Amino acid sequence: MSGVSFSIGGSTRNLEAYLRNMKKVDFSAKLRPLAQQGVNALSAATPVETGLAAHSWDYEIVEERGRVTIWWTNNDIENGYPVVIGIQYGHGTGTGGYVQGRDFINPAMRPIFDAMAREMERVVRNG
Question: What rounded mean pLDDT belongs to the chain?
Answer without folding.
Answer: 88
